[in-house]
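Weekly sync, protein design subgroup
Attendees: M.S., D.O., the rotation student, P.L. (late)

Item 1: inverse folding check
M.S. brought a backbone from last month's batch and wanted to see whether the design step gives back something sensible before we order anything. D.O. pointed out we never logged the input encoding, so this time it goes straight into the notes. Structure tokens as presented (168 positions):
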């Protein structure tokens, strides 16, 4: 089996279990809940099969939905992020992404942070909007998006630093 495939399988399963067993039990102040599982979508190889990527993103969100009994909101948010990811990459990394010579670990910190932050905010907004499904609760949706988004970005950035070969 290819090393990249094995790494992605382990990442997929590990992030689902970390999310379900640990992170879903964290809920600060009613608004803050980290969603680390989105890291799979952010780190998926940029030049890999995009159809497979959309299917895996759906399965990732669906797995979280099964454990949380959340009716498909995670699957929808994951598929949207996976679908718009090329545009987010082009926006954050510019010509490096267009020439397919991009590795997230070697990109400048600001570009990496903007890619992660924008992706997380869009994911969380879709997730919480579909969860509430009402414009009358837009303030709650925006609060949850902002606070959980910031906490998720911090969690993702810390995990990238901890598990990066560069910092070992």
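Designed sequence read out in the meeting:
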């Amino acid at each position: 089996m290819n090393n990249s495939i094995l790494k992605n399988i382990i990442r997929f399963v590990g992030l689902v279990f970390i999310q379900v067993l640990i992170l879903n039990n964290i809920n600060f102040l009613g608004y803050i809940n980290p969603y680390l599982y989105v890291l799979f979508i952010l780190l998926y190889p940029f030049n890999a099969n995009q159809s497979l990527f959309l299917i895996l993103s759906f399965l990732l969100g669906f797995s979280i939905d099964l454990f949380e009994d959340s009716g498909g909101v995670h699957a929808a948010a994951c598929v949207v992020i996976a679908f718009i990811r090329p545009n987010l990459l082009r926006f954050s990394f510019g010509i490096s992404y267009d020439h397919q010579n991009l590795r997230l670990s070697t990109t400048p910190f600001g570009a990496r942070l903007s890619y992660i932050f924008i992706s997380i905010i869009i994911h969380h907004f879709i997730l919480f909007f579909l969860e509430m499904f009402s414009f009358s609760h837009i303030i709650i949706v925006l609060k949850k998006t902002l606070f959980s988004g910031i906490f998720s970005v911090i969690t993702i950035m810390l995990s990238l630093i901890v598990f990066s070969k560069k910092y070992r």
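Discussion: The chain has a mean pLDDT of 87. The longest helix spans residues 138-162.
Action: P.L. to compare against the previous round before Friday.
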